[in-house]
Amino acid sequence: MASANTSWSEENFSCSICLDVFSSPVSTPCGHNFCRTCITKYWDEQVKYKCPVCNKIFNIRPDLQVNTLLSELAAQFRLSVRVKEQPCVEPAEVPCDVCTGTQLKAVKSCLECFMSFCQTHLEPHQRVAVLKKHRLDEPMDRLEDRMCKKHNRLLELFCQTEQACVCQFCTETDHKSHPVVPLKEEYEVKTAQLGKIEAEVQQMIQERQKNIQEIKDTVKRSKADADREMADGLQVLTALMRCIEKCQDDLNQMVKERLISTEKQAEGLIKELEQEIEDLTNRSLEMKQLSHTKDHLHFLQAFRSLKNPPTTRDWTTVEVRPPSYVGTLRRSLDQLEETLNMDMKTLLEDVELKRVQQYEVDVTLDPDSAHPKLILSEDGKKVYDGVVRKKLQDNPKRFTKHLFVLTRQSFSSGRFYFEVQVKDKTRWCLGVARESIKRKGQIIATPEMGYWNLFSCKDGLVFNDDPDVCLPLRAELQKVGVFVDYDEGLVSFYDVDARVHIYSATGCTFSEPLYPFLYPGNNDYKGDNSGPLIISPVNQTD
To answer: Is the CB of residue 471 less than 8 Å from the CB of residue 461?
Structure first.
């Protein structure tokens, strides 16, 4: 068997069409050899049958037969070719388009053949004169996508007008007046833009994740509110049922007592009647016995004692009247309604206060807003009239006419609640105010001017409005709770110790931050109003 000389180069055994070692080689009449598949496909695409090497034309398509000797030598040479020293392609590298089996790393890409070659399969381009004219470039994948469809040239420029990749010929025709830059330059610009876009996308993702968390938190709070509402409802309805059960028990007891009284009266009368019947029956027997006596003397003597009947009651005037229950149920229900109105109001207000206390906020007084006569504690929780006006630096936040002070904290949404101790005070005012309120000169503290407040004086409580809402004086009022639902436009005031609702302003319109505010009132000459207003922590009761 013939053996291939391993010193021969691949040129001796390469098809000039596929540039690879022969596979089923055939010989043309002009003496050139090709792979059967390559020459067959080549002639299928041609009008005339010619040799790809010498261009000799054949009038009739030659009937080709496999060159057995050359086929055997090519097979042995293929086995002897050492390719193991060439690197195999890695995932991020461009593979050789000619290699069969294990693909090797491409070292060059041909811009004429639209193929990438490893070092072995690149050899014809370095040797064959025709192939040496082909343009070679660094390895590139998807070469067909990198070529201009119109000019069959490499896309190596970028048109900024059309925002498209173009070749050199495009800049001389369709894009002649358009600004173009190298791909690398535009790549750097677009990379920077991509980084910015990516940052924006990440921010959008974070915002949406935050929205998801806020929605989940809302659902969680809603569930907690629902659980609390059901628990409060159970408490109220249980108390309601207890009141109804007590009303029923009282009604039943009253009816039973009346029935028992009637039964006792009837039993007494029956006993009395039965006794009279017994006495009368005995008299009747005696009279019957006397009627049969023939002894005249005995008859006359006994008749004198029997002629008068025994002492009995006049039963024509005696009767047992059944008790009347007309109006009993109505009176019982009236009593139940009165009890329910009183107890339920107390219970509901207690439940309501517990609920709003859940929204407690920690607020401290802002010295920059305090009137110069006011004295604030170091922790910002107490304020009173110091009588003497301090010399302070002018501040646009400071009140100059009224002894008002705001808190440092403001609220622009949601709900919040705080409590203020007013014990031993004879004159005070507290509530909330919007940020843009007037702070200099005379102030009218009404909702129209941005104030929602409760004012106390010796005559009673007043919600400052136009007109004012006068409220009953609460002599034992020691601590006031203030609840605000910003989104619902609600401001409510509570007597914390009595756990009673005082007043609510509804339908309020809030469009800017709200600040809790306090007015401790002037310290009169007797010192009756010298005590402080104190922002107190919420002490919830079970």
So the answer is: yes
